[in-house]
């Protein structure tokens, strides 16, 4: 089923790119909101991007990865490490969604620091997945 693996990789690339782009969108929305005063709400782009690009890509990547695991019976120590890295990516994804909600509610304190923390967690997860996948041919058992 090479099409399933291709779908998984494509969805993962889009999701990883989204996790790297969302912090920039959040910081931009924060700057716009602070500069605009009380007359303007939070720009809709972070929520739109989160709902229409990042979340569907995440669900597709996780769903297709689960199907690959179930259909091919993949097991090994590398899988546990990869799933741990995916958990970090999911945590960053959830944090970005929570930060979007905070911005929409007008709560700006701590958003910049939390965005940086989310970016670091996302980067660790992305690099973890990449490292484990590239090291997998070493047959970790």
Automatic annotation (TrEMBL):
Pathway info: Porphyrin-containing compound metabolism; protoporphyrin-IX biosynthesis; protoporphyrin-IX from protoporphyrinogen-IX: step 1/1
Cofactor requirement: heme b
Annotated keywords: Cell membrane, Heme, Iron, Membrane, Metal-binding, Oxidoreductase, Transmembrane, Transmembrane helix
Reaction equation(s) it catalyzes: protoporphyrinogen IX + 3 A = protoporphyrin IX + 3 AH2
Main localization (coarse): membrane
Pfam families, sorted: UPF0093
Membrane topology: Multi-pass membrane protein
Alphabetized InterPro entries for the sequence: HemJ-like
Compartment(s) of residence: Cell membrane
TM region positions: 6-27, 48-71, 77-101, 113-135
Lineage top rank: taxon: Bacteria
Metal-binding listed as a keyword: yes
PANTHER family, alphabetized: PROTOPORPHYRINOGEN IX OXIDASE (PTHR40255:SF1), UPF0093 MEMBRANE PROTEIN SLR1790 (PTHR40255)
Entry similarity comment: Belongs to the HemJ family.
Protein name as annotated: Protoporphyrinogen IX oxidase
Protein source organism: Vreelandella malpeensis
């Amino acid at each position: 089923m090479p099409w399933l693996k291709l779908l998984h990789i494509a969805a993962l690339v889009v999701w990883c790119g989204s996790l790297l782009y969302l912090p920039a969108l959040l910081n931009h929305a924060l700057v716009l909101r602070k500069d605009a005063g009380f007359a303007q709400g939070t720009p809709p782009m972070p929520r739109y991007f989160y709902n229409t690009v990042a979340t569907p890509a995440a669900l597709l990547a996780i769903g297709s990865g689960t199907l690959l695991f179930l259909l091919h019976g993949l097991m090994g120590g590398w899988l546990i490490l990869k799933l741990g890295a995916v958990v970090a990516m999911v945590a960053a994804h959830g944090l970005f969604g929570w930060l979007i909600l905070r911005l929409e509610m007008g709560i700006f304190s701590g958003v910049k620091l939390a965005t940086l923390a989310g970016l670091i967690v996302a980067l660790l997860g992305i690099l973890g997945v990449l490292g484990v996948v590239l090291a997998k041919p070493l047959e970790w058992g």
